[in-house]
Amino acid sequence: MLCILSPQTRLLGPCLKRKVTYVAPLSALHSIANLSPARPKVNLTPLKRFPALNRPFNIRSAAAAMSPVTQFLNTSGEADPVWVHQVPYSKHPEFSPLKENIETDVCIVGGGIAGVSIAYELVNRGFNVTLLEARKVLSGESGRTSGHLANALDDGYTEIAKKHGKENARIAAESHTWALNRVGEIARNLDIECEFRYLPGYEISQYNVNHPGYQKEIDSLREEVKMAKDLGLSVSFHDDLQVQGWDSGPDQRGGAVFENQATFHPTKYLVGVLEWLRKQPNFNCFTDTRAVSLTEEGFEVLGFGKERVTIQTENGQKVTANQAVQATCVPLQKLAVIAQMEYNRTYCIAIRVPKGYVQDCLLYDQAEQYKYVRLTECDDKDDYLVVGGCDHKVGQEDTGGRFAELEQWVRARFTRAGSVDYKWSGQIFEPVDYMAYIGKNQGTKHSYIVTGDSGNGLTHGVLAGKLIADEIGGLKNPWSQLYDPGRMASLAKSLPSMLSHDIEINTQYKRFLQTDITDIEDLVPGTGGVLNKGFSQPIAVYKDEDGEVHENSALCPHMKGVVCWNNTEKSWDCPVHGSRFSKDGVCVEGPANANLEPLKKRKQQPV
Ligand SMILES: Cc1cc2nc3c(=O)[nH]c(=O)nc-3n(C[C@H](O)[C@H](O)[C@H](O)COP(=O)(O)OP(=O)(O)OC[C@H]3O[C@@H](n4cnc5c(N)ncnc54)[C@H](O)[C@@H]3O)c2cc1C
Q: Taking 80 as the threshold, does the pLDDT of residue 86 lie above it?
């Protein structure tokens, strides 16, 4: 399936513009042993704006004290995102695992922004809500995001209108505007200090004004401005647009200005909402509780009888619910929507800049793997410029070199940039027709899904709160048909790109015939590789820093793709549908709903 885009496609969405078919030689995937994730600078300066967090803590020692398993229960990678600078994992709300069978009105699976937003809306409407989380709350992509809240959608309204029609493009604009405002409203209502603020969003060319490609990008930006204005957004084109602080490098002036975009500190916000939720009598949450299946059972005819959903957990307990929601970022198992998405990794750095030096705005360029930029609080002296980009398909390219590229990009433009304190990557998903899938799962009566961030997963997650709460509460929502997981018309328009994506996905099975390593001895401590001897199943071998060798099956439990070693995040990533596993084999990203099958663990003998 996926994303073959017209040259005019606009292009701002982590992933969208890539037409990658290149598959890195597997040897390359494993030759990147020494990329050490950035370690944060110790910050002992009292924080001014966040009195509740005014206790100094030493991130370096907190991280060092963490066992490898704990890291992957808290977040989906070895590298920590900048958000831990002010909200370490130890400040995330803690809940206990489910220990007995329970019944509830609505069971939500997944404790990220989608799950928390749906819980918030339903609890407010009086439903009994149970939230299940396989690891710790906020351990998924919501903890690793960059936190732009935009109605300047990544795929561009010109392209969205081509797939969905202009009226639906208007609905997209209206509903995302609602979602970004909703975050501000909830933060205000619950008194959550989360850096929420409105600011302008700038879209600029990737090229210098003298470059031959510059004018074409400016023309397509002007076209986008016209379309967005028609849809009711406050947007204009400025020939002389320049970002304050951009004091060197290429002159990329001129661009679209979208008013009333927003940003926030994602984990401060979500921790605040979860703290409020835990005080509500009609809410409970269980962590370290993986859902392994959701089944609709019972019989219902003309209002008689009762169908319910049984959510079976890995630990053996079950939740029986009137309605269930998969807010697991990617739905579990083999649903049709999984085949309608492209799975990408995107990279971010947080680099110090003196306070007031760089303008507080959201910034995007038009590159195929575009850069996305924002500011967040660091300390009394500096802010962090959070810069993202360098996307590629999961498990299909070398993960090395991406952080260096981002850093060079910043230093070439913002000469007063200081140290890079955080470097991390995360997973993003691109539905073939650009809009997330939110609503009742195809072929079910009481089961809902939310997936397909399309570069705007935060607003899509918040929006899921309204769409799903409205549907469960029996309210007709005029936006719901655009996000319906069963929609057909826009998907039909995307058939050619779906086919080419399918072909590409199937070629990933070639890894059955390949091996990354020929001898475990050759693995550098702290790295992994797949050992495929050809006569038995391929083995995912990880050698830890002490030389202990951990062996798991290299077959992804979802559809038996052979996983690849991701040396940046020390994880096993499946190139087929993007499932990911920690170095120890713990599932951190679906659609797989189980861990890699453990084989053995042994200490390597000294030679
Ligand atoms: C680097 C990066 C930058 C981004 N920037 C932006 C941005 O600026 N703006 C924007 O709008 N979007 C952005 N996104 C996308 C956005 O962050 C995500 O789409 C969004 O956070 C996903 O939220 P979620 O709740 O759907 O999933 P998640 O936050 O991943 O939560 C899903 C949860 O489900 C749990 N789970 C999974 N399987 C099970 C199971 N079987 N049982 C129980 N629990 C389970 C997981 O452990 C996880 O905690 C970015 C993403 C990345 C990675």
A: yes
